[in-house]
Write a structure and sequence with these properties.
heterodimer, A: about 270 residues, four-stranded mixed beta sheet, 6 helices, B: alpha/beta, 26 helices, 28 strands
Chain lengths: ~270, ~750
């Protein structure tokens, strides 16, 4: 097989370790100049590139259980590399699939706010700026020059901290290196996670922790071979690059839609 | 020229087709989309040279190392410091939001003098010179009248040079009234003092523990040093260590544990005794430790065997006897078991007898000063200052007993009891409090039952706050001397409580002070110099900076560079010299009261008839309950919509309980307790014992900012303090409550 030089940056989130503390959400907001409003309790309007969902198993006391699930952009590759749900509907080419990195970009100045991408994203990873971002007096001082603040009327989403990739590449270039070390490019959420629940790296690189953890199957769009790993809505065929690990069955089940009694339905047997 | 029908149509159609084929509409559309985006008010952050500064976060007792990314002179991002012994790169959401606290508009911009009534919010900006001379004049006046002992000071900590300067100032001035805000550290300190005869901090060998029995400690909900504890928790996932969580509500810690055992609130001590019963009866305890290093075991054994059989304990705790027996066996049979206590994030003490019962379990398991167990750790002794010069007034002042009764005959071992202050101030016993200094804490928000505290404040003639923010306490001060915030100042920060490795971190100015603020250490030194005489002589330093540099000596250089100084882990495992009690051994008998460790329930306020439910507070790290600052905008944004919706907080209630009362999800109700009431919304939650309701701490702030103010209610205002008879600490764990429709 030809060695694939392209990266497929991805993330593995260990739900057994995730404490639901919310550090990843804030690390992301602080890194990416995400604005905030006075009332953020309507979560459909609350811009959180990384959002931690709270799942419950629905069992009555005392068998009830809860689990937190951090959700960045899944950076879907689609059925064939580049056919992400959002990329394929964008009329302005404001969102595109990076073949070199596997990251889905979002170019704010091209976006004219039609929100087709939001409708097509099955993970609700995209957010629309319904209002101008407003920082209270003085607070603009902490804004980072690496990520441009967005204006009213455009869609935004997680970029796997792409600017960090660019900075790391520039640094490597200056040092006359062509390859990045695993630690050189890490997302803000993975770096901040107090529980070490988020691991980030190149899924194509067998030396990277993410590859070892999930063991992606290239014949099936990167489906994990690790039985404890799942991807959200696997059956949609979006081919996402975010994997979740959990030892608990109900949590892995919650990652996709299932028919009632599906476990009992016999799988069709293929002969020959 | 005549325009016919045909000509007209050709013109219109041709024009339309021509326009459509020309780039014009596309150009216009493009321009419009650009025009509607290029607003001058969308900020364009200035680029520049990037640099990093190492420091330490002091927003909570966690003490994480931080690395701050700067662009020219602006701080743009706070990150966890890699290689720091506390957090090794991790950082919590409060720490990440620190720049909002630095650059936010809610800071106090200069010294302020109250002009209107207390709490009215009318202030005059004054100069630092004026402010300090106001304090000096007031304090000089009190001292000359022989009332030096009536000056008090509340601090968040008693460790490090700044709290030491405060304490030193009070001593040289002539007042014994230095107070430290309560936390579970008080319970642990007392327990170690009584059972082991030492004045020490608890230190836990979490790295090597393989069975962690947590009596309600929110290990991943902010207990101890939050990031460090989460790192430990994840490490246990890798090593296969078991975590058992005992508490009435399915907290995040409970959900992540290997097993959650729901327990009737306030009965943790009884369970500990019940476990001891099984361990003793089945001879599962560490024979060597008990035989050689324990005193009073036989007496305690009789009591435990007599009174705490699994059936009686099951009746108290609501945990079935079989579970108790099985838990006791697995705890005692683990190689390195460890039992810990302190509810939620550990910012409220637990009753002394509860803490002692849990500690007794560690003794039974042989986990005292042992691998994977609990150690008595003495704080690093690095602050060596010249003797305080005591004049006659100081000596006389220090003769007075403390206002809070700590160290008195009634509470001989307690060191600080600020929870008893409101009562003492209001009754003026043993004497009135004439002036109070507050630094780094917000007692009017965090102490339980805020109303009597407010009243007590009214009675203090001169209240001075060092707060950088207009918090609930600062609002009721007479004078505010705003401190630099942690990102603008130098300060030594000793290791967090619970940590074994010796460590001192250094907070240093990441940016220049942004406002007309002053380091509290400098203010204290200036106050002493202003008062002159023996006080000035006791403070020979030019500034706080020179004091700190001199104190840290040769450690200074390395701390400036790395952000911390750390020593190697040295644990005293020698049990021969570990116990400084009268018997020289580990005590199962309290030498002061002469009684053996037992379960003493901490009462719950209110009668069952009018208040059929029980309200308990819970801690969520997203609401920063163990910080002296309110939740910054980023952090409050992360709060779930099942906790906060618009301005209403949700009370968690079991669907069974709700069904009986006819309450529906999201319904607005009135939650009342014997001491207060507030409007909340119903959230049906299966993870809570029927009959118990829970509210998060950290909401209901006033005077903060538009992003936090007016959201939810302060649960501390609904729960009254319950004094622990043995120690005088506030050991309240909840209160009776009722829910009525509105």
């Amino acid at each position: 097989m030809k060695y694939n030089k392209n990266h497929r940056f991805g993330m593995v989130i260990d739900l057994d370790k995730c404490t639901g503390c919310g550090s990843c959400m804030v690390a992301c907001m602080a890194e990416n100049n995400v604005p905030f409003r006075k009332d953020e309790s309507n979560k459909l309007l609350s811009i959180t590139w990384m959002r931690v969902f709270r799942l419950t198993n629905g069992e009555p006391f005392p068998k009830t259980d809860i689990c937190y699930l951090p959700r960045p952009c899944m950076q879907c590759a689609g059925q064939h590399e580049g056919h992400s749900p959002c990329v394929s509907v964008c009329p302005a080419t404001a969102t595109d699939y990076g073949i070199e990195t596997g990251i889905v970009s979002q170019i704010y100045t091209r976006c004219f706010g039609c929100r087709y991408c939001m409708a097509s994203c099955p993970y609700h990873s995209r957010y629309f700026n319904w209002w101008d971002p407003i920082w209270p007096t003085g607070m603009e001082k902490y804004l980072s020059p690496n990520v441009s603040p967005r204006m009213r009327g455009v869609v935004e989403k997680c970029s796997f901290c792409y600017h960090r990739y660019q900075l790391a590449k520039e640094k490597a270039f200056m040092e006359k290196r062509r390859e990045l070390k695993e630690s050189e490019y890490q997302t803000a959420c993975a770096q901040a996670c107090p529980a070490n629940a988020i691991t980030f790296g190149d899924l194509n690189n067998p030396d990277h922790a993410v590859h070892r953890m999930v063991n992606p199957d290239p014949k099936h769009g990167g489906r994990p071979k690790n039985p404890h790993a799942v991807r959200l809505l696997e059956r949609l065929g979006t081919n996402p690059k975010v994997y979740y690990l959990s030892s608990r069955n109900w949590i892995r089940q919650a990652g996709d839609n299932h028919l009632k009694n599906e476990a009992k339905i016999k799988k069709p047997v293929h002969h020959g | 020229m005549k325009i016919g029908r045909r000509g007209f149509l050709s013109f219109v159609i041709g024009g339309a087709a021509g326009t459509a084929l020309s780039p014009l509409p596309w150009k216009l559309m493009d321009d419009t989309s650009i025009w509607t985006q290029m607003w001058p008010w969308t900020p364009v952050p200035e680029d520049g040279e990037a640099s990093y500064v190492n420091s330490v976060c002091t927003l909570c007792p966690g003490r994480c190392g931080i690395t701050v990314r700067k662009i020219e002179d602006r701080a743009v991002k706070i990150e966890g410091m890699r290689g720091n012994p506390v957090n090794n790169g991790g950082i919590c959401l409060l720490g990440l939001s620190g720049l909002q606290l630095l650059y936010g508009p809610t800071r106090i911009k200069s010294p302020l003098k109250r002009t209107g009534k207390r709490g009215q919010g009318k202030w005059d900006r004054i100069s630092w010179k004026e402010a300090v001379s106001m304090v000096v004049e007031k304090l000089g006046d009190l001292r000359s009248k022989g009332r030096a002992h009536t000056v008090g000071m509340i601090s968040g900590s008693d460790r490090g040079t700044v709290p030491h300067l405060f304490e030193r100032f009070l001593t040289a001035y002539g007042s014994p009234n230095f107070f430290r805000m309560p936390s579970v550290r008080d319970s642990y300190e007392l327990t170690l003092h009584i059972m082991q005869g030492v004045q020490a901090l608890p230190g836990f060998d979490f790295k090597n523990a393989d069975f962690i029995l947590s009596f309600g400690s929110g290990i991943i909900d902010g207990w101890g040093s939050p990031v460090r504890m989460m790192r430990n928790f994840s490490a246990w996932r890798n090593t296969g260590a078991k975590v058992i969580q005992i508490e009435p509500r399915l907290s995040n810690t409970a959900a992540k544990s290997n097993k959650w055992i729901p327990i009737n609130p306030g009965t943790e001590g009884a369970l500990a005794m019940g476990l001891a019963h099984v361990i003793i009866k089945e001879s599962l305890y560490d024979n060597g430790f008990i035989a050689d290093y324990a005193n009073g075991f036989d007496e305690w054994k009789r009591l435990v065997i007599d009174k705490y059989d699994p059936d009686s304990v099951a009746a108290i705790t609501g945990i079935d006897a079989g579970t108790i027996v099985a838990l006791a066996r697995s705890f005692a049979n683990a190689s390195n078991p460890l039992a810990i206590c302190g509810r939620g994030d550990g910012t409220t003490p637990v009753g002394l007898s509860d803490c002692m019962a849990v500690h007794a379990l560690n003794a039974l398991a042989g986990s005292i000063n042992n691998k994977g167990g609990i150690f008595a750790v003495s704080d690093l002794d690095y602050i060596h200052w010249p003797e305080i010069e005591m004049d006659a007034k100081a000596a006389v002042g220090m003769q007075h007993e403390r206002l809070d009764g700590a160290g008195s005959r009634k509470y001989p071992n307690s060191r600080y009891l600020p929870n008893r202050l409101p009562e003492a101030i209001l009754s003026e016993t043993p004497y009135p409090l004439e002036s109070l200094f507050i630094a780094g804490v917000n007692p009017l928000y965090t102490l339980m039952d805020t109303r009597p505290i407010e009243k007590a404040f009214e009675k203090i003639p001169f209240v001075v706050s060092f707060s950088s923010y207009m918090d609930e306490t600062a609002q009721r001060a007479d004078l505010i001397l705003p401190n630099h915030i942690y990102l603008e100042r130098y300060e030594d920060v000793p290791r967090p409580i619970g940590m074994l490795q010796p460590l001192i971190s250094l907070a240093k100015p990441v940016v220049e002070p942004q406002l007309d603020t002053k380091h509290a250490g400098d203010v204290i030194i200036q106050m002493a110099k202003g008062l002159g005489g023996s006080l000035a002589n006791s403070f020979p330093w030019e500034s706080y900076y020179s004091c700190l540099k001199e104190t840290l000596g040769e450690k200074w250089e390395i701390m400036v560079e790395k952000g911390f100084w750390s020593g190697s882990e040295s644990m005293t495992k020698n049990l021969e010299t570990s116990f400084d009690t009268v018997s020289g051994k580990f005590e199962f008998i309290n030498p002061d009261s002469g009684s053996a460790v037992q379960y003493k329930p901490v009462a719950v306020e209110g009668d069952r008839k009018s208040y059929p439910l029980i309200l308990i507070p819970y801690d969520s790290i997203r609401l920063a309950p163990n910080s002296f600052v309110g939740d910054p905008p980023f952090a409050i944004k992360t709060v779930d919509d099942s906790v906060l919706k618009h301005n209403d907080v949700f009370v968690e209630i079991n669907p069974k309980t709700a069904r009986v009362a006819g309450l529906r999800e999201g319904e607005l109700v009135l939650l009342s307790t014997p001491i207060g009431a507030g409007k909340v919304r119903i959230h049906l939650f299966e993870g809570i014992i029927p009959g118990i309701v829970a509210l998060p701490r950290g909401l209901g702030h006033t005077g903060s900012d538009d992003y936090l103010d007016g959201k939810g209610i302060n649960v501390n205002a609904l729960i009254g303090p319950v004094q622990d008879p043995d120690s005088g600490m506030d050991a309240a764990w909840g209160i009776r409550a009722k829910i009525s429709k509105v």
